[in-house]
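Lab channel / #folding
Pinned by the channel admin:
"Please post every new chain as: sequence first, then the structure tokens as a reply. Keep commentary short and put observations after the output so the thread stays searchable."

First post following the new format, from NK:
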Amino acid sequence: MNEAEIISRLENRLSSRRLQHSLEVARVARELASGYGVDPDKAYITGLLHDYAKGLDGSELLTIARAQFLLEDEVDTCIPDLLHAPVGAYLLETELGIDDTEILQAVKVHTLGALEMSALDKIIFLADMIEPGRDFPGLQRLQCLAERDLDRAMLFGLDSTIRYCLEQGRILHPLTIRVRNRFLQYTKE
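Reply from TO:
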């Protein structure tokens, strides 16, 4: 699929606000990719597609995740919106025929992270956090870190996410904690 076809599909799936977010994530991902030796076009396409399942409600996400054995933790059923990432990867493969494993993996892990992440995975995770429509304490620091060191940026971004969840009284996904601890180890080595 080319860019125009992807955008046309997204226009039918996502709200205009979510589409704008995806366009900005794609742009930021392309910029970051150029600095880290990652294919900028692949990063752009992945950024466009990263929220493919975001328009589905929690019950739809749970139904698909259960049917496709995508649930990895009991917390997944408590916070079904987080399933938009693995469900999105599944739908990209089955509905759009995308078979690029790097794109699918980056979409799958863009919300919670993963214990092993490629440069593309990190770029999409971070681009989703730092696109211009975002606003949270520490955003500028995260933007600077993302341009200099993906692992340190991941640690800072995960810390920010955990802090936000704690302040809001939200459930912390155990994977996010494990991923944060892994990046803490990476940055201390």
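NK: The mean pLDDT is 95.
TO: also worth noting, DSSP finds eleven helices and no strands in the chain.
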